[in-house]
Write a structure and sequence with these properties.
Elements lengths: L14 H13 L39
Length: about 70
């Protein structure tokens, strides 16, 4: 970063996606491609549109279940 680098995060949910992401980054000139695994806890309130009711004629029950 001190010499004008760029940090890019890519989310890959499978080993195949991880390999593909690394390959694409290297093919486009990435020098230091590293894999870091982090655990992300998602709660219902963290999900966008979790409480959305797309059709007012549906019941009052939200689409996502906690």
């Amino acid at each position: 970063m001190a010499v004008g680098g760029l940090v890019l995060w890519v989310r890959a949910r499978t080993p195949e996606q991880e390999e593909k992401a690394q390959r694409i980054l290297r093919e486009h000139g990435a020098d230091a491609v590293r894999v870091h695994e982090i655990e992300i806890n998602k709660r219902l309130e963290d999900l966008p549109l979790a409480s959305l009711r797309p059709d007012p004629w549906l019941s009052d029950q939200p689409l996502a279940k906690p």
